[in-house]
Amino acid sequence: MTPRTLHPAAWWLWALGLATAASRTTNPFLLALIATTAGFVVAARRSSAPWSRSYGAFLRLGLAVLALRLLFTLLLGSPVGGSHTLLTLPQLPLPHWFQGVRIGGPLSPEGLLFTFYDALRLATLLICLGAANALASPTRLLKLLPGALHEVAVAVVVAVSFAPNLVADVRRLRAARRLRGRPDRGLRSVLGVGLPVLESALERSLALAAAMETRGFGRTAPVSPRLALATRSLTMGGLLACCAGLFGLLGADRAGWAAPLLAAGAAAVAGALALGGRRTVRTRYRPDPWAAPEWLVAGSGLAAGAAVVLLSGRYPDAFTPGVVPLVLPALPLYAALAVLLALLPAVAAPPPPPLRKTARP
Amino acid sequence: MITFEQVSVQYPDAAAPALAGVDLTIPEGELCLLVGPSGAGKSTLLGTVSGLVPHFTGGTLHGRVTVAGRDTRRHRPRDLADLVGTVGQDPGAQFVTDTVEEELAYGMESLGLAPAVMRRRVEETLDLLGLAELRNRPLAALSGGQRQRVAIGSVLTVHPRVLVLDEPTSALDPGAAEEVLAVVQRLVHDLGTTVLLAEHRLERVVQYADRILLLPGDGRPAQLGDPAEVLAQSPVRPPVVALGELAGWSPLPLSVRDARRRAAPLRERLAGAAVPPVAPATPAVPVARATRLTVRRGPIPAVRALTLTLHAGEITALMGRNGAGKSTLLGTLAGLHAPTAGTAVVAGLTPHRARPRDLVRQVALVPQDPRDLLAAETVAAECAAADQDAGARPGSCRALLARLAPGLADQAHPRDLSEGGRLTLALAVVLTGGPALLLLDEPTRGLDYAAKARLVAILTELAAAGTAILLATHDVELAAELTHRALVMADGELVADGPCAEVVTASPVYAPQVAKVLAPQPWLTVRQVAEGLAR
Which spans are transmembrane here (chain A) (predicted)? Predict the structure, then answer.
């Protein structure tokens, strides 16, 4: 297969399918299988660009969530009472009006296990998100927004790329404080650079805005006043209809007119976006094609998700194993096979184009 | 191609207009070099061509600027984007996307070119600028020269008829600067692009210019003409031109080659004269010492097993390409980075462990952008803060500043000062503690020749008083003019260390213009030659 970058939406749909599967179960074996599947595909198909390294960060975040939840259960106890006691921590005496809260005290393996299952689900969701991030950078996904939203997408991309610059500015200006003989540690040194950091961020945004302006950002094609009026009224009307529809849906009596009104509002907004797109003259350079590998990647992820949702409705016990009494949960075989389907991209997706060795810094 | 009709620009709150009475025409297909001292309105003039002045910067534009018949008053910068390409000093500040290829396509996408056209032009531009190897690279992983080439390429893809470059080589080492200028020249020759280029480092660009546009900045009107004629009256000029004038050559030589062909009689006249010695006046007392110093920043060591001693009263130049580890070495001596292995000792202190308050009295570092050091609202407040930081007698910093730069107003905001004024203020601030070692990182970036001469005088005086000075610089002319000793770093290692005259003449990249003209005689600067002739 010739190396090329896969359509970013395909990767995000695949990850969405896996995440949906993970959200429907607390079975630790199934969750571990989902996380491993995601990790395997990332290892097989990520490029060597800087954003591909974000997978490691998400993995660490998942583990941190797991550790934090277990720590809190250890300290605050668990709502799941168990018949066994693993160990008893010294309990902090609290006044009686603190009813329902305890610090320390007996700890049951059932409670710990319950927390573990629950936290593992959250960690797996994070890992799926990290996989999507590593395989297709979110900025590439933003480029798929319709033309009318192009300016918003650019604003988001620029804001995202500013975070690393801000960190570098803070470092540089703290170093400068040290050069002036002022302490460079502690909270005061961070606060002391606040204003200069903002100043340099502002200067940088102005420079970027000027550069974008000279490169033709924001050029518009002339549109007829009637079209402009139609776009504006569709946007306003559509948004109002959406609001009213949502209000009706969420209200206590569930009005029957709400759902159709919401649908009509959404359609009007979509129409406004399509009409608004006529104002932009922008074209796309080398848009990612949507071919067979994209269908396979997106399809495998979504199929895995759909299968797990379907099976979890039919056999709820296997997907949310009980902890009282303590039993070893079984691995639901059909669901496991469905998750394994999501391994397909590791061979079906084309390998990323190679980057050469990075430049000297 | 570009016509200025009685153009003047006035910014609000400014006493004098930033630009006045410019009335001239730049013909198509020429490389026009814009020269003048700082504050003469060079950036403003460039801005009027791209339309950023006055649409983006504010201010009032009188008169009329037209580019290929389009009036910049009635066309916003974005409406001129297909005609004028602009590249600024810091290419990193203008990148919008993540990778080289996307960046090259960005401008064309904004203009709505057809996908097939975009594809073809990106390929052409990759080849034209020698970027094909880098097409998938993230922009963050490029070196300085590569970034500048990508920035130029990103505006070239829309096929602009005018290219406006604001100091394209000032941040680059001599090698990378040649790389960029070769590309610019190719555009002029092969594509017939009209190029308007502003640059302080005239010695790098003068030989490529078809015409020079001089903004004298002292009230005289702007002047456009043949390079040799204009430079004869210019307050700023490269060493080779100054040498030509000293020797009485007419017309003045613009390139080393021109000068060298006429230099034989001058070499004969100089054959008997001795080169004035350049050695520090004081005996060699060590001030700072690095022993097998290794500093790791990120995965790769930026400085590797480097051993170095700096002496009181000695001015040392530190040269080498971008990314060779110069700034890291300076930062380590000033205590900003902890050594991974080996030791650094400055005046008996271990820099990264010393308390900032103690260290500031021994080591002073002026970073690449002196603005980083300045935080107060006025010059007076900055000086008062410096006295307090260094524990000096109130008023010492202000007195020092008055000596270094007479006539700097107390109430001025540090950010409103000229580049030279800011550098002097930063110098005064860090010198308040009376340090034994002064470190400067690229001090001449953005300085005109007058400000540079002022800096040379200040540093020479400091060294005579016994301060050890180490300056990292790409400016070989400055190194030749000022320093006693020169170091060259490559990949974190010291590859040359010796008397400045020997080190800079040993390689053609670092040789100053005068040395190239008068080789094999060991003259380095116009001043030396003048002294030699006088004897």
Answer: 29-45, 57-77, 148-167, 233-251, 257-275, 295-315, 327-348
Query: Count of domains in chain B?
Result: 2
Same domain (yes/no): B316, B373: yes
| Facing B367 at nearest CB: one of A176, A218, A354 | A176
Chain A CB contacts of B353 below 8 Å? none
pLDDT at residue B276 is higher than 90: no
B249 domain-assigned = no
Examine residue B530 and state whether it is found in any structural domain, yes or no.
Answer: no
| Residues in A touching B158 (Cβ below 8 Å) | 215-216
Residue B280 lies in a domain: no
| Cβ of residue A287 closer than 8 Å to a chain B Cβ | yes
Q: Which residues of B touch A218 (CB under 8 A)?
A: 78, 110
Question: Residues of A with CB below 8 A from B114's CB?
Answer: 283
Domain assignments of chain A as residue spans, ordered by start: 8-139+287-320, 147-214, 225-279
Cα B315 to chain centroid, rounded: 20
The model's pLDDT over A192-242, given as tens digits with 9 standing for 90+, comes to 777 888 888 888 888 888 888 888 887 888 888 888 888 889 999 999 999
Contact B372 A173 (CB under 8 A): yes
* B281-287 contact pairs (CB < 8 A, 24+): B281/B313, B281/B464, B282/B312, B282/B313, B282/B466, B284/B311, B284/B312, B284/B314, B285/B311, B285/B312, B285/B313, B286/B310, B286/B311, B286/B312, B287/B311, B287/B312, B287/B346, B287/B347, B287/B436, B287/B437, B287/B468
Indicate yes or no: CB of A207 within 8 angstroms of CB of B298. no
Is A50 in contact with B364 (Cβ distance < 8 A)?
Answer: no
How far apart are alpha carbons B48 and A10 in whole angstroms?
Answer: 46
Q: How far apart are CA A28 and CA A266, in angstroms?
A: 39
Residues of chain B found within 8 Å of residue A144, distances taken between Cβ atoms: none
Tell me the C-alpha distance between B62 and B45, whole Å: 13
Q: Are residues B11 and B135 in the same domain?
A: yes
Q: Which of residues 35-94 of A touch B (CB under 8 A)?
A: 49-51
Q: Does B397 touch chain A (CB under 8 A)?
A: no
Contact B52 A183 (CB under 8 A): no
Does residue B307 share a domain with residue B162? no
In CATH, what number is assigned to the domain containing residue B298? 3.40.50.300
Predicted complex ipTM: 0.83
Contact A214 B106 (CB under 8 A): no
| Each residue's pLDDT tens digit, A313-332 | 888 888 888 777 778 888 88
Locate the DSSP E strands across B394-484.
437-441, 468-472
Q: Would you say A45 and A135 are in contact if contact means Cβ atoms under 8 Å apart?
A: yes
User: Do B422 and B290 sit in the same domain of this protein?
Assistant: yes
Task: Give residue B217's domain range.
Answer: 2-237
Angle ∠(B424,B425,B429) on CA atoms, nearest 5: 115
Pairs across A and B, CB distance < 8 A: 182
B262 is a domain residue: no
Q: Which pLDDT belongs to residue A358? A: 42
What pLDDT score does B26 carry?
Answer: 93
Whether B169 and B78 share a structural domain: yes
C-alpha count within 13 angstroms, C-beta hemisphere, residue B438: 29
